[in-house]
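ok trying this again, last paste got cut off
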Amino acid sequence: MKKYILKYSLLLTIFWSASSCASYLGGDINIDPSRTTESNISLAGLMSTVQFYTSESHFNASWVVSRYVQQIADVVADGVDVQREQSIPAVWTNIYLNTVPNLNVMMRKAEVENQPFYLGTAKIIMAINLGLGTTMWENIPYSQSDKGTEGTFRPSYDTQEQIFRNLQTLLDEGIAALTPIATQTTTRPDDLAYNGNVGRWIRLAWTLKARYLCNSRAREQPPPPITRCKP
Protein backbone atom coordinates (compact mmCIF):
# COMPACT_ATOMS: atom_id res chain seq x y z
CA MET A 1 0.00 0.00 0.00
CA LYS A 2 2.84 2.36 0.90
CA LYS A 3 4.34 1.61 -2.52
CA TYR A 4 1.24 2.89 -4.36
CA ILE A 5 0.91 5.93 -2.06
CA LEU A 6 4.51 6.89 -2.78
CA LYS A 7 3.99 6.39 -6.53
CA TYR A 8 0.92 8.61 -6.76
CA SER A 9 2.46 11.21 -4.47
CA LEU A 10 5.43 11.43 -6.79
CA LEU A 11 3.18 11.83 -9.84
CA LEU A 12 1.18 14.58 -8.15
CA THR A 13 4.40 16.35 -7.16
CA ILE A 14 5.68 16.26 -10.76
CA PHE A 15 2.34 17.53 -12.12
CA TRP A 16 2.19 20.33 -9.56
CA SER A 17 5.78 21.34 -10.23
CA ALA A 18 5.23 21.48 -14.00
CA SER A 19 2.04 23.52 -13.71
CA SER A 20 3.48 25.92 -11.16
CA CYS A 21 6.63 26.34 -13.26
CA ALA A 22 4.54 27.29 -16.27
CA SER A 23 2.61 29.77 -14.16
CA TYR A 24 5.82 31.21 -12.75
CA LEU A 25 7.58 31.58 -16.10
CA GLY A 26 4.47 32.50 -18.03
CA GLY A 27 3.03 30.82 -21.17
CA ASP A 28 3.99 27.45 -22.57
CA ILE A 29 7.48 26.56 -21.36
CA ASN A 30 7.81 23.97 -24.15
CA ILE A 31 7.94 26.69 -26.82
CA ASP A 32 11.42 27.99 -27.63
CA PRO A 33 11.04 31.71 -28.52
CA SER A 34 14.46 31.76 -30.18
CA ARG A 35 13.75 28.81 -32.47
CA THR A 36 13.48 29.52 -36.21
CA THR A 37 10.01 28.83 -37.62
CA GLU A 38 8.31 29.27 -40.96
CA SER A 39 6.90 32.60 -39.83
CA ASN A 40 10.22 34.19 -38.84
CA ILE A 41 12.72 32.61 -41.24
CA SER A 42 13.84 34.84 -44.09
CA LEU A 43 13.98 33.88 -47.75
CA ALA A 44 17.68 34.72 -47.74
CA GLY A 45 18.25 32.30 -44.87
CA LEU A 46 16.38 29.56 -46.69
CA MET A 47 18.29 30.21 -49.91
CA SER A 48 21.74 29.65 -48.47
CA THR A 49 20.51 26.67 -46.42
CA VAL A 50 19.04 24.72 -49.34
CA GLN A 51 22.08 25.43 -51.51
CA PHE A 52 24.45 24.16 -48.83
CA TYR A 53 22.56 20.90 -48.28
CA THR A 54 22.09 20.38 -52.02
CA SER A 55 25.84 20.64 -52.50
CA GLU A 56 26.49 18.34 -49.56
CA SER A 57 24.09 15.74 -50.97
CA HIS A 58 25.97 15.66 -54.26
CA PHE A 59 29.30 15.40 -52.46
CA ASN A 60 28.07 12.52 -50.30
CA ALA A 61 26.66 10.70 -53.33
CA SER A 62 29.84 11.10 -55.37
CA TRP A 63 32.04 10.16 -52.41
CA VAL A 64 30.23 6.83 -51.95
CA VAL A 65 29.64 5.98 -55.60
CA SER A 66 33.20 6.78 -56.71
CA ARG A 67 34.52 4.34 -54.13
CA TYR A 68 31.85 1.74 -54.86
CA VAL A 69 32.75 1.58 -58.56
CA GLN A 70 36.45 1.67 -57.57
CA GLN A 71 37.39 4.94 -59.21
CA ILE A 72 39.09 5.60 -55.90
CA ALA A 73 39.85 3.23 -53.04
CA ASP A 74 39.26 3.21 -49.31
CA VAL A 75 42.26 3.38 -47.04
CA VAL A 76 40.65 0.96 -44.58
CA ALA A 77 39.78 -2.70 -44.98
CA ASP A 78 36.20 -3.67 -45.80
CA GLY A 79 35.35 -0.22 -47.13
CA VAL A 80 32.74 0.83 -49.68
CA ASP A 81 34.97 -0.33 -52.55
CA VAL A 82 34.31 -3.97 -51.64
CA GLN A 83 30.99 -3.38 -53.49
CA ARG A 84 28.59 -4.62 -50.86
CA GLU A 85 25.07 -3.25 -50.48
CA GLN A 86 25.04 0.45 -49.60
CA SER A 87 22.21 2.66 -48.36
CA ILE A 88 23.83 6.14 -48.56
CA PRO A 89 21.69 7.53 -45.70
CA ALA A 90 23.39 10.95 -45.68
CA VAL A 91 22.04 11.76 -49.15
CA TRP A 92 18.52 10.65 -48.21
CA THR A 93 18.60 12.70 -45.00
CA ASN A 94 19.85 15.82 -46.77
CA ILE A 95 17.18 15.59 -49.47
CA TYR A 96 14.13 14.71 -47.37
CA LEU A 97 14.99 16.31 -44.03
CA ASN A 98 17.19 19.31 -44.80
CA THR A 99 16.27 20.36 -48.34
CA VAL A 100 12.79 19.43 -49.58
CA PRO A 101 10.93 20.78 -46.49
CA ASN A 102 12.90 24.03 -46.60
CA LEU A 103 12.25 24.39 -50.33
CA ASN A 104 8.51 23.96 -49.79
CA VAL A 105 8.61 26.68 -47.14
CA MET A 106 10.66 28.85 -49.48
CA MET A 107 8.11 28.49 -52.29
CA ARG A 108 5.18 29.32 -50.03
CA LYS A 109 6.87 32.41 -48.60
CA ALA A 110 8.06 33.57 -52.02
CA GLU A 111 4.52 33.42 -53.38
CA VAL A 112 3.09 35.30 -50.39
CA GLU A 113 5.82 37.95 -50.48
CA ASN A 114 5.81 38.17 -54.30
CA GLN A 115 9.48 37.30 -54.70
CA PRO A 116 9.86 35.67 -58.15
CA PHE A 117 13.62 35.21 -57.75
CA TYR A 118 13.25 32.96 -54.73
CA LEU A 119 10.23 31.18 -56.17
CA GLY A 120 11.99 30.36 -59.43
CA THR A 121 15.27 29.30 -57.87
CA ALA A 122 13.46 27.14 -55.28
CA LYS A 123 11.75 25.19 -58.06
CA ILE A 124 15.05 24.70 -59.88
CA ILE A 125 16.81 23.53 -56.72
CA MET A 126 13.91 21.18 -56.00
CA ALA A 127 14.39 19.66 -59.44
CA ILE A 128 18.11 19.22 -58.77
CA ASN A 129 17.44 17.32 -55.54
CA LEU A 130 14.74 15.11 -57.03
CA GLY A 131 16.99 14.44 -60.01
CA LEU A 132 19.73 13.24 -57.68
CA GLY A 133 17.27 11.17 -55.69
CA THR A 134 15.80 9.35 -58.66
CA THR A 135 19.28 8.79 -60.07
CA MET A 136 20.35 7.12 -56.84
CA TRP A 137 17.20 5.14 -55.98
CA GLU A 138 14.95 5.19 -59.09
CA ASN A 139 11.46 5.36 -57.49
CA ILE A 140 11.32 7.97 -54.70
CA PRO A 141 8.67 9.77 -52.62
CA TYR A 142 7.54 13.15 -53.87
CA SER A 143 3.81 13.67 -54.42
CA GLN A 144 2.99 12.49 -50.88
CA SER A 145 6.17 13.64 -49.14
CA ASP A 146 6.48 16.53 -46.67
CA LYS A 147 2.75 16.92 -46.01
CA GLY A 148 3.14 17.51 -42.28
CA THR A 149 0.32 16.39 -40.01
CA GLU A 150 -1.98 16.19 -43.04
CA GLY A 151 0.20 13.56 -44.71
CA THR A 152 1.59 10.20 -43.79
CA PHE A 153 4.83 9.02 -42.26
CA ARG A 154 4.99 6.37 -44.96
CA PRO A 155 4.42 8.16 -48.29
CA SER A 156 4.12 6.07 -51.40
CA TYR A 157 6.95 6.11 -53.94
CA ASP A 158 6.44 7.83 -57.29
CA THR A 159 7.81 6.01 -60.30
CA GLN A 160 10.93 7.32 -61.97
CA GLU A 161 8.90 8.13 -65.10
CA GLN A 162 6.62 10.35 -62.99
CA ILE A 163 9.59 11.98 -61.28
CA PHE A 164 11.12 12.86 -64.65
CA ARG A 165 7.83 14.47 -65.68
CA ASN A 166 7.75 16.40 -62.40
CA LEU A 167 11.29 17.62 -63.04
CA GLN A 168 10.30 19.11 -66.38
CA THR A 169 7.29 20.81 -64.78
CA LEU A 170 9.37 22.27 -61.94
CA LEU A 171 11.98 23.59 -64.36
CA ASP A 172 9.34 25.10 -66.65
CA GLU A 173 7.76 26.85 -63.67
CA GLY A 174 11.15 28.04 -62.48
CA ILE A 175 11.97 29.51 -65.89
CA ALA A 176 8.54 31.16 -66.07
CA ALA A 177 9.04 32.80 -62.67
CA LEU A 178 12.52 34.09 -63.50
CA THR A 179 12.00 35.23 -67.09
CA PRO A 180 10.24 38.55 -66.22
CA ILE A 181 13.24 39.54 -64.07
CA ALA A 182 15.91 38.08 -66.36
CA THR A 183 17.72 41.42 -66.66
CA GLN A 184 17.77 42.01 -62.92
CA THR A 185 21.29 42.66 -61.59
CA THR A 186 20.61 42.66 -57.84
CA THR A 187 23.53 41.18 -55.91
CA ARG A 188 22.42 38.52 -53.45
CA PRO A 189 25.11 37.22 -51.07
CA ASP A 190 22.71 34.48 -49.91
CA ASP A 191 22.85 32.99 -53.42
CA LEU A 192 25.98 30.91 -52.99
CA ALA A 193 25.89 29.68 -56.59
CA TYR A 194 25.35 32.72 -58.83
CA ASN A 195 25.21 35.70 -56.44
CA GLY A 196 21.77 36.68 -57.73
CA ASN A 197 22.51 36.39 -61.47
CA VAL A 198 19.07 35.52 -62.85
CA GLY A 199 20.32 34.77 -66.36
CA ARG A 200 22.61 32.04 -65.08
CA TRP A 201 19.79 30.41 -63.15
CA ILE A 202 17.67 30.34 -66.32
CA ARG A 203 20.52 28.79 -68.32
CA LEU A 204 20.97 26.20 -65.58
CA ALA A 205 17.28 25.31 -65.79
CA TRP A 206 17.46 24.77 -69.56
CA THR A 207 20.59 22.64 -69.14
CA LEU A 208 18.84 20.48 -66.56
CA LYS A 209 15.79 20.12 -68.81
CA ALA A 210 18.01 18.69 -71.53
CA ARG A 211 19.81 16.36 -69.12
CA TYR A 212 16.64 14.95 -67.58
CA LEU A 213 14.94 14.63 -70.95
CA CYS A 214 17.85 12.52 -72.20
CA ASN A 215 17.70 10.40 -69.03
CA SER A 216 13.98 9.78 -69.36
CA ARG A 217 14.21 8.87 -73.04
CA ALA A 218 17.13 6.54 -72.38
CA ARG A 219 15.01 4.75 -69.79
CA GLU A 220 12.09 4.37 -72.21
CA GLN A 221 14.23 2.79 -74.94
CA PRO A 222 14.85 -0.95 -74.67
CA PRO A 223 18.47 -2.03 -74.22
CA PRO A 224 20.29 -3.16 -77.38
CA PRO A 225 20.38 -6.91 -78.02
CA ILE A 226 23.40 -8.77 -76.74
CA THR A 227 25.62 -10.04 -79.55
CA ARG A 228 27.93 -12.95 -78.96
CA CYS A 229 31.10 -13.67 -80.80
CA LYS A 230 31.10 -16.92 -82.72
CA PRO A 231 33.80 -19.42 -81.67
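PB: full thing came through this time. The chain has a mean pLDDT of 84.
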